[in-house]
């Protein structure tokens, strides 16, 4: 299983029956989680304990790593004060892009390739 968890997103998006319904439900759920109200993106709340996520965090650009640390500090201050950010400072849905997912998938592909290469036998 991936460090990002099990995902049926591609199959659901391809479905004409479930796609629109699940998309609306997913947007409502994302708004209810409250991470955007504290200034966080979805990838900021990923569990950092897996090796793949740790390696992916190390591959972030300097600017993205700084922005991530800043968002986490702002969210911590919001949690301490029991307040949400003003609407103008909250993360909008179009700004909530997956910046860490491609890096995690890249790390997992490299690990799978390394494992396959290690288990390859000479003919």
UniProtKB/TrEMBL annotation:
UniProt xrefs under InterPro entries: QCR7, QCR7_sf
Transmembrane spans: none
Family: Belongs to the UQCRB/QCR7 family.
Cell location: Mitochondrion inner membrane
Keywords: Electron transport, Membrane, Mitochondrion, Mitochondrion inner membrane, Respiratory chain, Transport
Protein name, as recorded: Complex III subunit 7
Record's bilayer topology term: Peripheral membrane protein
GO biological process, one term: mitochondrial electron transport, ubiquinol to cytochrome c
Taxonomic path: Eukaryota, Fungi, Dikarya, Basidiomycota, Pucciniomycotina
GO CC annotations, alphabetized: mitochondrial inner membrane; respiratory chain complex III
Domain of life: Eukaryota
């Amino acid at each position: 299983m991936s460090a990002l968890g099990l995902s049926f997103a591609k199959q659901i998006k391809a479905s004409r029956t479930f796609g629109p319904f699940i998309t609306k439900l997913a947007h409502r759920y994302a708004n209810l989680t409250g991470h955007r109200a504290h200034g966080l993106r979805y990838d900021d709340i990923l569990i950092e304990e897996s090796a793949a996520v740790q390696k992916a965090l190390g591959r972030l650009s300097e600017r993205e790593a700084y922005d991530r640390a800043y968002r986490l500090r702002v969210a911590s201050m919001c949690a301490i004060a029991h307040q949400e950010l003003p609407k103008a400072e909250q993360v909008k849905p179009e700004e909530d892009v997956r910046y860490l997912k491609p890096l995690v998938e890249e790390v997992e592909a490299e690990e799978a390739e390394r494992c396959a290469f290690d288990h390859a036998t000479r003919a």
